[in-house]
Design a protein that fits this description.
The protein has 382 residues and is an alpha/beta fold. It has twelve helices and eleven strands. The protein folds into two domains: 279 residues, Alpha/Beta hydrolase fold, catalytic domain (Rossmann fold, 3-Layer(aba) Sandwich), CATH 3.40.50.1820; 52 residues.
């Protein structure tokens, strides 16, 4: 009897503690660790862009440093929950991540169709807002996957606002990309004699459209499942893959656990709405020239955005300000998670080559500061 009372005295408080912790994680946790220093910034904010509230994470040890703006992939795959995996960048940049419209924690919360032009407009407005806020002339733009569509178009449309553009897993041609990706899966499955994969692949056909030209999301998801298993998404998905990325996201403090519940649903909706536009993209024809320094950060194992297409584009691109193609030998589609040290080092090389006046590793770098006129509505939540 005494033993039962002892166990009850231990187990019940433990259960209560677990419930309190889960409630906190699900409903109340939402902060970004504070960076100390008179010139630092570490904030989570809702900022109105394009008439909708967008969720922003802004972090830096020194606001005199240049801005590094990330444009996340998906569409609908927010990068804010992954930012904590590359905090070293805050030493050298004002690092900015934002959830695109209808994605992550940004409005609209309901699923409303948006075009690529809508996302383009939001990005340009975001760039101008940041330049005004931090009193800068230009910034560095990094796009990942779907975000490289918006990034490359911004490099074409507002080159005067950018020091350089970095495409990570650069998107080039929608139709060719999906065919290359599909063919890679079939080839690998044939080599491995994987009959289950080959059977699944025989039931679908890129670009996965129904008779009305609408994306069949189930078919795309099936191809992407096998693409990971066949080694076309990560360098080694057994060591770090989709599940590892999800665990990395869940460890962030900027999202409550409940915030993750709607991410996949909203991401799939955004993909369905933009898919016809994505399949019409052919940057070889549409953007043959870029007039700012351009960098491609490409994983050697990437068949989500197949490297053959980005390399062919790089070789043919007219880039009078300079073009660079950087291999990440131990990466697939997400080099900033798979090789974070190299990713940071390569970004610092970009900084050293494209800016002037501050000392960094013996290289002279300079920061400029004229304002770009702009007004913005901001709601600071931290």
């Amino acid at each position: 009897m005494k033993k039962k009372f002892i166990l009850r005295g231990i187990i019940l408080p433990l259960i209560l503690l677990i419930i309190i912790i889960l409630c906190y994680l699900f409903f109340f946790r939402e902060y970004t660790p504070k960076i100390t220093g008179t010139s630092s910034v570490s904030s989570l904010e809702y900022i109105t862009i394009g008439g909708e509230k967008h969720f922003f994470l802004i972090r830096s040890e020194d606001q005199s440093k240049p801005i590094l703006l990330f444009v996340h992939g998906g569409p609908g795959m927010p990068s804010i929950p992954l930012e904590h995996a590359s905090r070293e960048l805050e030493n050298d940049f004002i690092v900015v991540h934002y959830d695109q419209r209808g994605c992550g924690k940004s409005d609209p919360s309901s699923i409303i169709p948006a075009t690529i032009n809508d996302f383009d407009s939001d990005l340009e407005e975001t760039i101008r807002m940041l330049l005004t806020r931090f009193d800068k002339e230009k910034l560095y733009l990094v796009g990942h996957s779907w975000g490289t569509i918006l990034g490359l178009r911004a490099a074409q449309n507002v080159p005067e606002l950018l020091y350089a553009y970095v495409g990570v897993g650069q998107y080039i041609n929608g139709i060719e990309q999906e065919q290359h990706s599909y063919d890679y899966v079939v080839k690998q499955a044939t080599l491995l004699n994987n009959s289950e994969c080959l059977d699944d692949m025989s039931k679908i056909k890129p670009p996965y459209l129904d008779d009305e030209g609408t994306l069949i999301m189930e078919d795309l998801s099936l191809e992407r499942k096998w693409l990971e298993k066949m080694g076309g998404v990560w360098f080694n998905y057994h060591e770090f893959g989709n599940s590892s990325m999800m665990m990395t996201m869940l460890r962030c403090t900027e999202y409550k656990l409940i915030d993750f519940l709607s991410i996949e649903k909203r991401a799939k909706a955004a993909t369905v709405y933009t898919w016809p536009e994505e399949m019409a993209i052919d940057f070889m024809e549409q953007i043959p020239q870029i007039n700012i320094p351009i960098y491609f950060f490409i994983g050697r194992s990437d068949y989500n955005t197949p490297f053959e297409l980005s390399y062919n584009y790089y070789m043919n691109l007219d880039a009078p300000k300079g073009k660079h193609y950087i291999w990440f030998e131990r990466s697939g589609h997400v080099p900033y998670l798979e090789e974070p040290v190299k990713f940071r080092d390569e970004l610092l090389k970009v900084l050293a080559k494209t800016n002037q006046a501050v000392e960094y590793r013996g290289l002279k770098i300079a920061y400029f500061s004229p304002k770009v006129p702009y007004t913005v509505q901001t709601v600071v939540i931290q």
